[in-house]
Design goal:
mainly alpha, Cytochrome Bc1 Complex, Chain D, domain 2, about 0% strand
Length: about 100
């Protein structure tokens, strides 16, 4: 019985770690996005490349990233939808 309680507590702890990890857009970008976006558009900080994406809005761009597009895999390789959105927010912030 004690082992079952420990396992349940461990699973619950892992489940709550997700949102904390999603809080750091730079870390997600560095791990999942930066490799490709260093060489492919839109490059981090490229205001001209981000201009049409700003017009579409954060929600619409995040939805495309979550689904994947062209050579970009779903979520851009990030672990979760929240991580992908956080990375998009970080990229937007660097292009303003």
């Amino acid at each position: 019985m004690m082992r079952a309680i420990v396992v349940v507590a461990a699973v619950m702890a892992l489940g709550t770690a997700g949102p904390v990890a999603a809080a750091d857009g730079k870390a997600v970008y560095d791990k999942s996005c930066g490799g490709c976006h260093a060489a492919m558009a839109p490059k981090l900080g490229d205001k001209a490349a981000f201009a049409p994406l700003f017009k579409k809005g954060l929600g619409a761009v995040s939805a495309v990233v979550i689904k994947g597009k062209g050579a970009m895999p779903p979520k851009g390789g990030a672990a979760s939808d929240a991580d992908a959105k956080t990375a998009v927010e970080y990229m937007f912030s660097k292009a303003k």
